[in-house]
Each structure stands twice: as C-alpha cells, then as structure tokens.
Amino acid sequence: LTPKPTAANQRSDQALLVRGELVLTMEPEQPIIEDGAVAVQGADIVAVGEYAELARRFPSAPTLGSEHHWVLPGLVNAHNHGAMVSGSFRQGILDLPLERWLMRLYNSRLLDGQMSIAYLNTLHQNAQLISSGVTCTADFYYGDGSEPYLGAEHGLQGYQESGIRIALFLAAVNQPSVDNGDLEVFLDLLPKELAERAQALGPIQYNITEQDYLEGWSRVHRDFHESGGPINIMLGPDGPVRCTPDFLAAIKQKAKEYDTAIQMHLLETKYQMLYGRREKGQSLVKYLHGLAFLSPKVSFAHGIWLSPEDADLIADAGASVVHNPSSNLRLFDGIAPVQKMLSSGVNVGLGTDNMGFSDDNDLLDEMRLAALLQRVPGVRGHALSGQQALNMATMGSARALGLSDHIGSLKVGKRADLVTLSTTRMLAPFMNPLNDVREIIWRRARREDVCDVLINGRIVKKNGELTTINTARVREGLREWYEQLWAERGEEEQTIHEILAQVDPFVVNFFEEYERDDQGRTDYRYNAWSSREE
Ligand SMILES: [Zn+2]
User: Is the pTM of this model over 0.90?
Assistant: First the structure.
C-alpha cells in the first residue's frame, strides 16, 4: 500500500470532452445545456458549455459520449458502510428491527481478526456503486483499534484501486448503549444460565480508548488524506449516546482543527427517540445542540424520528440529514419525513447504508425509492420533484459530506466527477418532449444505462465496462474467503445464533416497555412525522 498516490500519475493531462444531447449541471444559473459538453483537464472541469464551442476550443481533445447520451454530475452516496459491515446478508444476518439486527451483527464471530477482508469488500461494493453512477461514497468505517491505522488501510487500498472518491468516517464508540447491540446492557434481564452463555460471547469488538482513537485518526489523516482529492478522512462518532459528552467535545475540537466533516447516526428508530427523552430528558437533537455539536460540517444519517423543532435546530445550524430509505425499510425504522425536512430548510443527502433494497448498492434505485416514498396520500399530490430527488443524490449529498466546493455539480473549477447516461433504452420507444429530463432520469435511469464514469478526471467505467475493478476476481476472492471462514467457524457461528435467538425475546420485551412513553403507538405509519401530529 502506497499512501497518497498523486492523481497525476493516474491520468493524462490532455483535455477530454464529455459530450451529451444535454448536460445536466445541477447549477442554478444554467441547469440544462442542450447539445452540450464538459471539458476535463487533469482532475478538473475546465469548461462547461455548448459542444460546438468546446470542440473549437479543444480541437485535439478526444470525446466521450455523443448525441445519444446525457451528461450529469456523478452521484454521491452520503451514507454507507464498508469494512466488516459490508455484506451482512452474505454473513447470514437477515433484516430485523435495528436494535436486534445490531445484536446479531456485533456478536457474530465470523469476521473476527479478518480486517483485511475490508479490501475485497470495498472493491466489491465499489463495483456496484460505480456501475450505478456513483463517483463519491461515504464509508462509516468500523475498524480495529489494535491496528496502527485502526484497520482503515485495508478499505483505503480498495478505494485507491477503484478510484472512487471516498469520505471515510472512522467510527468512534466509547460507551455501551442500549441501541448498539451490546449484550452487556441486557445481561441483568436474562435468566442466570442464559446470561452466562451470553456473557461468554464477550463485549463488542470495536473497543478503543478515546486517546487511541484520536491519535489513530490523526495518523490516518496524515498519511492518507488528500485535500480536494479522492481520499477524505473524516470523523464518525457513532451516535449521540454511543459516545460520552467529553469524547464528542474532543471529536468536535478535532474536526475544527483539521477543518473536516463529522457524521453521526441519529434517530434511526423510535426507541432512540424515546430513550433520548428518558436518558437525557430531552430530544437527542436538543442534547447535541446543548453540547454545541451542530454545525454545517455535521451530517446525521437517518433522522427518521426528528420532531419539527429538531429539524429547525438542524436547519438553523446548517447541518445535514442523510436519507437512507432502503435501510430504513429493511430495518423496520420507518419513513423519514423528507419533504418536511426540506421545507424546514434542512439540507438532505441520500445514502444506501450498504442496504439497498436489492442488496446491491444501486443509488439510482435508492433515488427512485426515496422519491416514491414521499408521496403522501391525498388529492394535492404532495411529492418530491425530479429536481429535489436528483439534488439529494448530488449537491445535497456533497454538502452533507462537506465536499460541495469540489463535487456535486458540473462547474468550472470543480473536480471532474461525471457520468454519461445512454439514452437508447431510457427514452425508448418514445419519450414525450414535454417531460422534464430530471423527471425522466429518476424514473427511468438504470445501472445498465450508465455508460461512462469519470472520477477526479480518471475514467473508471467506459462504454459500460469497469476499468479499475476486476469484478470476477473480486467475487472469486470473496467466495473463497467466506467459504474458508465458514468451514472454520460455521459451527461456532451457529451456536452464537442459537444463544442470540434465546436472548431475543428479552430484548423485545425491553424495547416494548419503552413504548409506554409513546402511548402505545406501535402500528406502522406511512410517515413518522405526520403520524405524530395527529
Ligand atoms: Zn449506518
């Protein structure tokens, strides 16, 4: 692994034109340029305009795309997990309500001591992301405190190879909490014999001191971070009650010192909302506000159970929420009130959370789901517009990651992160010219239409083929790895599953008891926020 490869040795300095029947810039002044092009030189966009004019300005530049393509900014996946969380389904962990799902995830021993598998997991995931037009992804990365780079180097090697732009939020946890799958919180509730067997499974694995985290993070930042480049090292306090207030303050201080972004899980389930009230006597957003934690550099993953007042606090601070509709549905969390967040002025990004609804990290699908889930029943037809849906997946996400100066739209001076969509299938057999292109894209665009993908000026997908990842080799490597692990640890894993299945009813009871604070509202609602206003 060579830290900090310079972008210059991965691309030529010759200009390249990316041409389309139209260029969707996501810039307010000129959102759509017909028969347009983007000129790329090195890592940067050097011109955006009409194709004929750019062809005159750059006569010897080769051209990607054609009048049968549309050009748009690369999509930005603003919340995701790689490392060991990637492929939890592959590891035999099925969808369950979040608290019970995390208990399965964190108590599995299948991947113990296997941090280096993060390299292949990352490549596998990046192949999925890049093929769906993603040019930048967040990775909320649970590492290993015993490694000098906290285990980040394994994932980073995958990111460097694939070329995708990465916002790596190194996860920080320093206290057990009821929402984090930590068995020790529940031992008192269990019959003695079961408690002993559960205790023998040990504490959750990511367990390092504040000092080790902060020092380790600085090392990763020093040796890998590239300001304005593809690798961005950021801070990831796991949740408002998964870190002590002192630790949150130290992380905030670190972010200020390094001018870097912070991401945190927030109000993913109803129980998190309820125990915020119980444990802190106030909403978790108010609690964070009281710690002066909110700022434009902070993004919150999920935010499903925000109250209107919480949304105002987040909007006033300029902080962001990252919406993860597939994950929210798969883990029984609810539907985030995205329309209301947007009308409160909250910046909203979009993420797959490693849980796309087809388990394949397709951000185009995620955008479709996000748009359709916001269709509140009623004759007024309140919905997200195509502009809002695409904005969430581009500028909204870029802003959430603190990277909107560099990516998220096609603008001179920004990095060359862009995508060509073939229109051949997308517009067939006939597309009424009255339809807005943004409305067409979120409804129709599929992974198979993503023709070319450039990241930081580097071509990572060309004519529908990935250029940096050998997917067959990666799949084969993962298959061998997991088969080996299963042969060695399958029996132990089955025992763990059985213990957890016995613990499960006690955990369910524990959380059901919380519901008394919520007047027994346990039924599924179309929209969490509107149900609470009834
Ligand atoms: Zn997450």
Answer: yes
